[in-house]
Amino acid sequence: MNRRTVLRWSGYVAVAVVFAIACVMLSNWQFARSAEREAELALVAGNYDRDPVDLAELIAPGAAFDPSDEWRTVTLRGEYLAEDTLLVRNRPRGGTSAFEVLVPFRTDDGRVVIVDRGWVPPGRDQPEPDAVPAPPTGTATVTGRLQPGEMSARDGRSAPEGQVATIDLPLIAAAIGEESAAVTSAYVLMTDEDPAAERPNALEPPSEDPGPHLSYAIQWILFAVMGFAFIWYMIRTEVAHRREDAESGESVPRRRKTGRRDRDMEAEDELLDVR
Fold this sequence. Notes:
alpha/beta
């Protein structure tokens, strides 16, 4: 085995090692995603069907939302601020780019909570919805599940007047002029209200699908193993070919070199034949 062959094989192995490291990193990332998804599903399973409690029990005045209370059901008492209704645009609902209907709700203790009443489809002849159902007027009781606010739009996109790009609660509080009274750490997905009124389409319950992360993590591990197996196959094949070539070279008989004397004798024989 010469030096060039050793260097080439070392290069093969180095490529396999680098590929395996990348695969392991991607596998660990998918394992982490899988663990996060399992934690989300466990949170939904533990909180989704718990009995309703008053909002103040989970978010006291001046306090912030605890992420472990996501999907807990709360009860609000007060009145809707229907004149400050906002639409969240570009929400994937019902196979359309729909709008979610956000209505501020002033509770009996003076706080303003954003209530997501559901979604409406875009209009038939224009992007905006044809109609948005109004909430009940006067004193009302709202039941719904807590959700954390969303981040601002990453691409900095804006929205027309009366609409927002995301459920960015501090931004919404400023838009409706309720910065001091608004709860900016969580909003409520409405499930029921009393008195009942026409409402938008109800939001779907959270998905129970664990996602493909675990299978992807295992696939990346298999890819790393396959990388080493491929390099081993290449080296093994090259060794086999070299061995076959060596054996073929030994089995071919060497031709006896024809000396000058033999050639002279052949020439004399030809002259005798002519005579």
